[in-house]
Specification:
Keywords: Disulfide bond. The chain is mostly beta strands. It has 4 domains: 127 residues, Jelly Rolls, CATH 2.60.120.290; 143 residues, Spermadhesin, CUB domain (Jelly Rolls), CATH 2.60.120; 132 residues, Sandwich (Jelly Rolls); 160 residues, Sandwich (Jelly Rolls), CATH 2.60.120. The chain has 3 helices and 48 strands. Strands 38, 40, 43, 44, 46, 47 and 48 form a 7-stranded antiparallel beta sheet that branches. Strands 7-8-10-15-12-13 form a 6-stranded mixed beta sheet, with no helix packed on it. It has a 6-stranded mixed beta sheet with strand order 17-18-20-25-22-23, with no helix packed on it. The protein starts with a strand and ends in a 24-residue tail after the last strand.
Length: 685
């Protein structure tokens, strides 16, 4: 390297470590009288001599009583070195390999020391490739702490200049991390006795003024031993002293321990335990934590100001909300309360403080998390109970709602009323997968709902169950009241092993039992014909009272044995859409067969539509239910007739339907023979 000394160009051979610094643009200026004067006045390394700064830096050499001294100017930085200080500053260890900044650092030779990038704190050169290999004795670990770190930032993946740290002896080892930009509190621990660090800068034309880095390293066998992690299904988080992750193996369990357990832990440790349950399209788990031993001495004021164990149950670490812990434990008694995470994540942060203790031992269990409110079954199956004695009103939903429920699942919901009570269900959102959709009548029944479905039953004291209906697709069930005499309702959600959907969200309420006819309705058994009207017809029906969750009207029609009931809807307008969103606010259920599920009717009947139904026996039942969210529509008017089907007839026989009806029903302006047979209205005067 050429250097001017007292106006004469001298050739100075620098020590090996200082001969090359990439393609840094060095310029040299003659040691002028003005420069001598400035240096004599200000002293070396005290100020910036702007007239001596070149394109990137300027280097001057001058005589001193102890020999040559190198003066380097980097922008606003001025640094002075003698050959000896240069060597001790940048030579981290024994030079190794080709290049000026590749070093081997052995713990047996150098227990602690500094690691400094070339030309620090001046702008580091371009086109560098430096390496630092740290080799400790068996049982030792290496701690690397960067106290200043300033590299060019080219993005989160550091595509330009970077420091990369490997957890092992060379660059084939596992990577701890790649770092660039400005880093604060960057402290790295090796897992074992070796560590490998590279510092790479790219060749480029743009000028940067980043300082590089300065840090310290230490070899020690007193850093935390990691066997308390590796022997207990944990996974050490590379680069940390004692942090670990524990991943579920599907409803697995195990133990977590303080460092060095069962012996006293070391002081001034901070270890984090990330315990993660499964979370994917099929599985969702939560973590149950139960302490069997706790010995973390309290501080002088009897609190957790010295050592502590903080528990985070809501995934606070994902938002760096470490100040919002759910529990803080210390002392010598394990908390008898079992802790359960809200979601798949549980975090423990152990800080040992100044006073040593025996630490802790805790059992963790991963449980399937359905995210369903209610009393869960103790065996962990998807079964939930809702008792009137515990809560009169509440919500329930499909697993994980509003995200998709899992496939191959069967979930059961039990709603148990007390004596003289009924339970009401109202569905607010509903979407259950179905492939065989009938767009005209809605998605109800076993013929349509074959893949995934929701079934609802009345449950009786003798254990018998009677199905109300099977539902799927987007056709939400209408409001449901348990029958008088039933002890409650049961709902079953079934999914096959194929695709899934978002499921449902619904409400339940327990209320005083109504009469068998509900809020209105009647028992019709002493007539051969009549009409059924919705409340207030022809005006709009209204919603339930504010104190009610539903309003119902039940009609029971019974005719003579061997006869059947023919019902024809003349007017019909109930809020809802059977082929779309279903009948969630109001519904008319019609049982043509008392032993089978009823038909769910809502929507609006066009004037030209012909709606008629005939019973399978001599009984028919109708139930009109409105939920508290009903807005009120025109309702319905239906005419019913006792008919006898067969070839023989002692009264009036309809020409097309061949129904046998009473003579007095002829010419009454009602289609008693059916919507397609007007023979009973012919020849009328």
């Amino acid at each position: 390297m050429d250097v001017y000394h007292r106006g004469i160009l001298k050739v100075v051979v620098l020590p090996r470590a200082q001969q090359h610094f990439g393609d840094a643009d060095w310029t040299f200026q003659q040691d002028s009288a003005s420069a001598h004067k400035a240096k004599a006045t200000q002293g070396c390394c005290r100020t910036h001599f702007s007239d001596l700064v070149g394109v990137r830096a300027a280097l001057l050499a001058r005589s001193q009583s102890d020999g040559l001294q190198y003066v380097l100017y980097f922008g606003d930085q001025v640094v002075c070195y003698t050959p000896q200080t240069w060597r001790t500053e940048y030579e981290v260890g024994t030079p190794a390999g080709v290049g000026p900044c590749n070093f081997l650092v052995k713990g047996a030779v150098k227990h602690t020391g500094n690691i400094v990038s070339p030309t620090y704190p001046g702008a580091y050169p371009k086109n560098l490739s430096c390496s630092y290999q740290f080799l400790g004795a068996p049982g030792e670990r290496i701690r690397l702490e960067f106290r200043d770190f300033d590299l060019f930032y080219g993005g989160q993946h550091c595509p330009f200049d970077f420091v990369r740290i490997y957890d092992g002896p060379d660059n084939s080892s596992a990577i701890i991390g790649t770092y660039c930009g400005q880093q604060r509190n960057l402290v790295i621990y090796s897992s074992e006795s070796t560590l490998y660090v590279t510092f790479v800068t790219l060749r480029r034309t743009a000028n940067t003024q980043n300082r590089g880095f300065r840090g310290i390293f230490e070899f020690s066998n007193s850093f935390t031993k990691l066997d308390f992690i590796s022997k207990n299904d944990g996974e050490h988080i590379r680069g940390t002293e004692c942090d670990q992750r524990i991943f579920s193996k599907k409803e697995s369990d195990g133990f977590v321990y303080s460092p060095n357990y069962p012996f006293p832990y070391m002081p001034k440790l901070v270890c984090r335990y990330f315990i993660y349950g499964m979370q994917n399209a099929q599985y969702l788990e939560r973590v149950r934590l139960n302490f069997t031993m706790l010995d973390i001495p309290k501080g002088s004021k009897g609190d957790c100001s010295d050592g502590y164990l903080k528990i985070y149950l809501k995934g606070q670490e994902t938002m760096d909300a470490y100040d919002k812990f759910d529990q803080e434990l210390c002392g010598d008694e394990a908390d008898p309360n079992i802790m359960v995470s809200d979601g798949p994540r549980l975090l423990m942060v152990f800080s040992s403080g100044e006073i040593m203790g025996r630490g802790f031992k805790a059992n963790y269990t991963f449980e399937t998390e359905y995210r369903i409110p209610g009393t869960a079954a103790p065996d962990g199956t998807c079964s939930f109970t809702y008792r009137s004695t515990s809560k009169k009103k509440g919500d329930f939903n499909s697993p994980r709602y509003p995200t998709n429920y899992p496939s191959s699942t069967n979930c059961t919901y039990h709603f148990l009323a007390t004596d003289n009570e009924q339970v009401t269900l109202v569905f607010d959102n509903f979407k259950i997968r179905a492939d065989n959709i009938n767009s005209s009548v809605g998605s109800y029944g076993a013929e349509i709902c074959q893949e995934d479905w929701l079934e609802i039953y009345n449950v009786y004291r003798d254990g018998s169950e009677i199905i109300i209906g099977r539902y799927c697709h987007m056709s939400a069930p209408g409001p449901i009241e348990s029958n008088r005499g039933a002890i409650g309702l049961k709902a079953i959600l079934h999914s096959d092993d194929a695709q899934v959907a978002s499921g449902f969200k619904a409400r339940y309420s327990f209320e005083l039992a109504k009469s068998i006819f509900g809020d209105c309705g009647a028992n019709v058994s002493s007539s051969d014909s009549g009409q059924i009207l919705s409340p207030n017809f022809p005006k709009n029906y209204d919603a339930p009272k504010l104190t009610q969750s539903s309003k119902s009207c039940n009609w029971y029609i019974t005719v003579r044995p061997q006869y059947r009931v023919l019902i024809i809807f003349d007017k019909f307008a109930i809020e809802g859409e059977p082929s779309g969103r279903g009948c969630p606010a109001a519904v008319l259920r019609l049982w043509t067969d008392i032993a089978a599920p009823g038909k769910e009717l809502c929507g609006e009947k066009a004037t030209t539509d012909k709606w008629e139904y005939i019973s399978a026996t001599n009984q028919m039942r109708l139930s009109f239910i409105t939920a508290d969210k009903a807005v009120g529509y025109a309702g319905f008017r239906a005419y019913w007739t006792e008919v006898l089907a067969g070839p023989s007839c002692d009264e009036f026989q309809c020409e097309l339907s061949l129904f046998c009806i009473p003579f007095h029903l002829k010419c009454n302006n009602i289609p008693n023979c059916g919507t397609d047979d007007d023979s009973d209205e012919k020849n009328c005067k």
